[in-house]
Amino acid sequence: MEDKKVLLSVKNLHVKFRVRGRILTAIRGIDLDIYENESIAIVGESGSGKSVLTKTFAGMTDSNGFIDEGRLILNDPELAETYVKLTSGGRQLMKSTLSRLNSISGYELGVETYRKMRELEAEKKSRESLSEEERAAIENELGDMKFKRANLFNEKQTYDPRHEKDRIKAADRMLKEYGEKIKALESKEAAEEKARKAEAAKDTAFIQRYNKQMAELKAKYEQEIKGQISEETKKRNEILSKEIHLSVGRYGLMKRLQLTFKLLAVLKQAMQTGVDLDDEEQRNAVFDKVAFRVKYLDETSDRLHGICVLNLANVKYARDWQQIRGRRIATVFQDPMTSLNPIVTIGKQITSVIMRHQGCSETEARRRAIELMHKVGIPNAESRFDDYPFQYSGGMRQRIVIAIALSCQPKILICDEPTTALDVTIQAQILQLIKDLQKEFGFTTVFITHDLGVVANVADRVAVLYAGQMVEVGTAEEVFYDPRHPYTWALLSSLPQLAQRNTELYSITGTPPSLYNSITGDAFAPRNPYCLKIDTLEEPPMFRVTDTHYAKTWLLDPRSAKVEKPEGIRDIHNKLMEAFNI
To answer: Burial code of 53-82, b = ≥16 C-beta within 10 A, e = fewer?
Structure first.
């Protein structure tokens, strides 16, 4: 894929959800590059993380979900190019920002002393309270009890009061027991904290040493941060002040001021702790806490020019998502009836999107909408423009959803199982439509599916997900004809089209692991018939098979004994060609 441009780069992505007082890790460290004008399929069992992964691309993660770690870099020169006018007010704000930066840069002169102060404080805190390990153990136990209590309470609501009185009474008793255990554990934690603090207060020798050392360090620190900063630091601060102005320039006045103060606060913290602000990655990470960093390039007498680092994992404001969602990344969901408003006409639903994102008149939006309806295969588009969704068949509704998704000519089209709710004969038409439109408009298609027949027909590359991790990625030919991960073997073996007469259909034994718990070793190990001892102890790295093919399995380690893939998927080329009419 060397000749292709990376459109979206996923780096070490971790996505978590808060569920009934516990944390569920749905995506665990995924790295994936998505290229321009390609079709990539993301496959795996239900619950493997396919939809969660792609929802993060467009900022559509559920309200209880959050990106805990990682980056999503969108390479879009048109969005990244940034110009900000230099008004008299803007110049004054930049001047005061530069003055503040020069003032707080003195903190960089006392980094070592500041670290010693924090270490001394941490030592005092560890004596006065529970350790991180002890606290984590108690929190895990509390979380487990609260989770069980919530599940039991929900289950109790399903009991019939007339016929299941005994079960309701038993549930009430258990709920009361859980409540008492939770209260006792919380009391125990508070009592242990109090005891540690009382014990630490009796250690007069440590208290005297702490007070003496802290006083000396504070005095030294106060002298250090009053020192003169270098000319190099002043020049760096000039660039920083311009980058702050560029990064907040797309907002209104009050928002600009608010974000400027926030950026100065995080830069002060970075200077105190010794972050190297001359390092591009570290500077990006500091800015990401507040807003996209716009890297300063040049300027004229009346404007600044920079380029933005678009990290979608750190988009915090709705206005930013309006520039990305729909215009750059669009989604086609599996059930068109839930994607369309049943009380708004089809034409109105398409034109409203066009007018919102492209700023054209209603007449022009109508013309474009009818043109799109023709392109997606709606017969008599002009006469059906004012129809409601219920007047369309399932296949026609899905074509309208595709038209809406393409109305702003996005660069990435996410198809979340777009044919699942459709008749088999219509599925092929919709897939062919998406392929034809991709050739015409030149967008990248991301297919989410567990139907390997869809994958065989539409995908250039395939990424296989299991338990929130990517376990194999390669071209469609490599994954189908030369799979290397046992999970991919199991998925292919489960294809009904590969079954022989009078034989039992293959199914993967067991169930996926609970994503509430940390997973030791290979997540697929308990279900893997080729499991090695190391699979239960250590997580495998991603091994390179070819320049485009990688698999996360210890079977590819040179020290591992050679294991052949199952008999049923050897030489499957002809079977797949015949089964899927490739």
So the answer is: bbbbbbbbbeeebebeebbbbbbbeebbeb
In the 8-state DSSP scheme, what is residue 110? G
Mean pLDDT for the stretch of residues 230-241: 95
Tokens representing 290 are 């507040």
- b/e 194-211 (16+ beta carbons within 10 angstroms → b): eebeeebeeeeeeeeebe
Is pLDDT at 437 greater than 60 in this prediction? Answer: yes
Distance between CA atoms of residues 544 and 556, nearest Å: 9
Compute the distance between CA of residue 267 and CA of residue 239 in angstroms, rounded to an integer. 13
Predicted pLDDT at 375? 87
pLDDT number for residue 414: 93
Main-chain phi, psi angles of 261, to 5 degrees: -65, -40
User: Around Cβ 516, how many Cβ atoms within 10 Å?
Assistant: 16
Q: Tell me the mean pLDDT in the region 535-544.
A: 94
Q: In what order do the strands lie in the sheet with 550-551?
A: 329-332, 412-416, 444-449, 39-43, 461-466, 469-475, 550-551, 543-544
Whether this prediction's pTM lies above 0.90 is answered by no
Tokens at 339, concatenated: 């994607």
- Residue 477 structure tokens: 């030919």
Burial of 313 (0-12, 13-18, 19+ CB in 10 A): buried
Which of 80, 83, 78 is closest to 300 using CA atoms?
83
Three-state DSSP state, 302: coil
Percent helix / strand / coil, the chain, rounded to 5: 55, 15, 30
DSSP bridge pairs for 330: 413
Question: In whole angstroms, what is the distance from residue 331 CA to residue 315 CA?
Answer: 18
Number of CB atoms found within 10 A of residue 443's CB: 25
Residues near 258 by Cβ (< 8 Å), separated by ≥ 6?
A: none
Percent residues over pLDDT 70 in the chain: 96
> Tens digit of pLDDT for each residue in 196-232?
888 888 889 999 999 999 999 999 999 999 999 999 9
> What pLDDT digit, counting tens, does each position of 106-115 carry?
999 999 999 9
